[in-house]
Amino acid sequence: MRKALYISAVVSGSSTLLSVLFKLMHLQGANELLMLGLGGFALVVAPLAGVYFYSKRR
Q: Which terminal CB of the chain, N or C, has fewer other CB atoms within 10 Å?
């Protein structure tokens, strides 16, 4: 569980940062990459972190 959380957090965080760089350089695909990074964080990382920290607390 912890490994999946860390890997998904790194992937979504790096894609979000890369999309910001694309936005600053006015490159194509920045919007899609931003939605992929933020969507990955909202749909994968946040629930995994909630489950992981809840189960660790018990």
A: C
Q: How many domains does the chain have?
A: 1
Residue with structure tokens 């940062």?
17
Per residue in 11-47, pLDDT tens?
Answer: 999 999 999 999 999 999 999 999 999 999 999 999 9
SS (H, E, C) the chain: CHHHHHHHHHHHHHHHHHHHHHHHCCCCCHHHHHHHHHHHHHHHHHHHHHHHHHHHHC
Domain housing 23: 2-57
